[in-house]
Specification:
Helix content is 27%, strand content 17%. By secondary structure, the protein is α/β, with parallel strands linked by helices. Among the domains are: 73 residues, Beta-grasp domain (Ubiquitin-like (UB roll)); 83 residues. A five-stranded mixed beta sheet has the order 2-1-5-3-4, covered by helices on one side. Strands 7-6-8-9 form a four-stranded parallel beta sheet, with helices on both faces. A three-stranded antiparallel beta sheet has the order 10-11-12. Strand 6, helix 2 and strand 7 form a beta-alpha-beta unit. Helix 2 packs across helix 5 and helix 5 packs across helix 8. It starts with a strand and ends in a 12-residue tail after the last helix. The C terminus is likely disordered.
């Protein structure tokens, strides 16, 4: 048995008991314990950790702890240059894609509305979500921390907020996606791209009031739903704009300071 000291920063403290937040945590560790094992044993999913410093040096999850090690654990940094430090997971290429657990239907709908490819089914089981995230390189979204502790989950995000719009704001801020919205480009039902369609081609599907007042339409080739820019569209655009603006205003840590 060895003893190591851990310090968690910023919102990682939300995963800890109140008496352990914002202070050094001395933890007994098995001699073969890795940093990853102990971080999760203390309550923090590995997917929430962006940077590790062991005795002031950049380290990976598989570092074997020794007597007296001091471990500083940081979340993602929006403004911190991590060039030259050891990355804890592969950097996703291109536009992020998501898979949301069965309790995040509201967030999934908002993400699709914002133009982010998001898989969701309220019948998803944890094993299926884990498989989809792994095989398709999707970011797993959940409020169940134990799901994010699974060994094969590399890309994940724990949502602290309860309200779907606040969950969206939190996700946009943490992933720096506020400027990457593409509203109303995906079907809210199928998660597939929408395409413009002539009014004449969908006239039979339109309510009389809509056919009398609207001229621009999009449709989904899978479910054949038709979308137009009515009052609901305007309200949702305003909501997405407000959420994105608040997400862009979030101030993230500029640099880690293990002595703080």
């Amino acid at each position: 048995m060895v003893t190591a000291t851990f310090r968690f920063y910023d919102d990682l403290n939300d995963f800890l008991p109140r008496e352990r937040r914002g202070r050094d945590v001395n933890a007994p560790c098995a001699r073969d314990a890795t940093v990853k094992h102990m971080i999760e044993a203390l309550g923090v999913p590995h997917t929430e950790v962006a940077l590790l410093l062991v005795n002031g040096e950049s380290s990976g999850f598989e570092h074997l702890l020794t007597e007296g090690d001091r471990v500083a654990v940081y979340p993602g940094f929006g403004l911190f240059d991590v060039t030259g430090v050891q990355r804890l997971r592969p950097r996703p290429e291109g536009r992020p894609r998501f898979v949301a657990d069965a309790h995040l239907g509201g967030l999934a709908r908002l993400l699709r509305m914002a133009g982010f490819d998001t898989l969701y089914d309220n019948g998803y089981h944890d094993d299926e979500i884990e498989r989809v995230a792994r095989e398709e390189g999707r970011v797993l979204l959940t409020r169940y921390r134990e799901l994010l502790k699974r060994r094969t989950v590399e890309l994940g995000c724990y949502l602290h907020a309860i309200d779907p719009s606040e969950q969206l704001r939190e996700l946009l801020a943490r992933r720096q996606l506020a400027g990457k919205l593409r509203p109303f480009t995906l079907c809210l039902h199928c998660n597939l791209p929408l395409r413009p369609v002539a009014k004449e081609a969908v006239l039979a599907q339109l309510p009389p009031r809509v056919s009398a007042t609207q001229d621009e339409f999009t449709t989904c080739d899978a479910c054949r739903r038709v979308y137009w820019k009515g009052s609901h569209h305007a309200r949702m655009c305003a909501m997405l704009g407000s959420v994105a603006a608040r997400a862009a205003d979030v101030e993230l840590p500029r640099s880690p300071n293990p002595d703080a």
